[in-house]
Amino acid sequence: MLKSYLQSFFTRLGYLMGAVMYLAYAAPTGGWANPWLIGVATFVGVFLPFFARLSDFFEAQVFLRTGSVFAGKIGRFCWQFLFNFLALRSLVAGGIVDLDDLATVGGVLGAVALMSLASQGTQYLVIDLGNRNVGNRYLNVVLALSFNIVLGALAALGYGAVQVVFVVVGLVLGVIGAFWSAVTDIAGLVAPSGGVGVFFGTFNPVHTSHLRILREFIDARQLSKVYLHSTVVPSFYRGLLEEGVIEIAEQRSGMRVYRLTGRANLHIDYFPTGNTFYEGPNRLAMLRAALEDEHLDEVAEVLYLPEVYARSGFGGVLADVRSRHPHQRVHGLHGSDGGGSIVRMIFDSAFFVWPWVAIRRDTVSATAIRNGGQGMTHPRVDRIRETLERTDIVDGTRFTFGRWSYEYHGGVLLDVADPARSPFCADDKERTGLR
């Protein structure tokens, strides 16, 4: 464990940023032996990788309970404000930072507010880039924090030009980012009725809460149509597979089980919702079956656009829905859990999607279902899961669930109506040696 910690890129980056912070303050002040500076720089260097995860944690906990993106960002801001305040106040107490140098930015509280806003703003930007498949969310956040350590150090030491940049970054990125979250929160409360809806998620597998909130969504917004689309193989996992950070350990009961390799980084939570996923076509079959069981298949349609998803993620699927209904409002349903917050960011960055949040309050869980929980999904979904658990089925066997017929191949139910009848990302099996 210690070896993995020391070899981690994020551990080394943290140490580097601690050293940068130390040098940025010590060089102009001569405080090379100042114990306050040494203590703060050392703590920042050691704590930086964990700081990023804690920032995500506080935001996620507030969002989970409130369903408000703005409140979640306030939670993130308060945690970062407290951390920055203690660090800067320590440097002032140690005589490293002169209060007169902070006068132009409002003293300690003003400097900390701007430092936290600038940090928030750059994090909003890089998280959005991560959602658009540019970089990795965790890496992006750590790099943004590192950038702000350098910028904050220079600004706190009274460099006028840097202070101007710092103010601009803080106001433009931080305030506008938070303001837009408040706007979309309000839009969700005052949204007009009518139009079409989208519901994106892992659906791993679909359960009773999914369909309950779907029905509430349709009734609340008076929708003529709702499109559901599950994740296929998220770009995050595709990239990790290609890099050899994770691999498919086994495939059983219609699911793939991922595991970490020696290249994994101990600072990253690669499997926040578990490491077991039903194959995309199987989740498609279960979604269709659940809609039929709930008699929602007349108004709700399951899309399966693996090529679009691979290229552009849910943003691409959303664009496809808009192309089908160019003159209608689009409403977006999402939960308040971690996956729901990512979907909400996609809605917010796409503009003109009216959000509808379902705050999670029950104990129904896809993880519990995969672990054997009973009574949390629908009869035909259970039939599909029981079929996939059988070991006596030969490839080519056909099954019918409601209106849909499927052909079984290697633990995957392929839609007979699909002329290609091939599962997406089958090359993952080749890469891992699985057949």
Task: Please outline the helices and strands.
Layout: H1 2-7, H2 9-29, H3 35-66, H4 69-93, H5 107-131, H6 137-156, H7 160-190, E1 196-201, H8 208-221, E2 225-230, H9 235-243, E3 246-252, E4 255-260, E5 276-278, H10 280-293, E6 300-302, H11 306-324, E7 330-335, H12 338-350, E8 353-358, H13 366-370, H14 379-389, E9 398-401, E10 404-409, E11 412-415, H15 427-432
Parallel strand pairs: 1-2, 1-7, 2-6, 7-8
Antiparallel strand pairs: 3-4, 4-5, 9-10, 10-11
Give your account of this protein's structure.
This protein is α/β, with parallel strands linked by helices and 435 residues long. It has 15 helices and eleven strands. The chain has a five-stranded parallel sheet with strand order 6-2-1-7-8, with helices on both faces. The two termini are 33 Å apart.
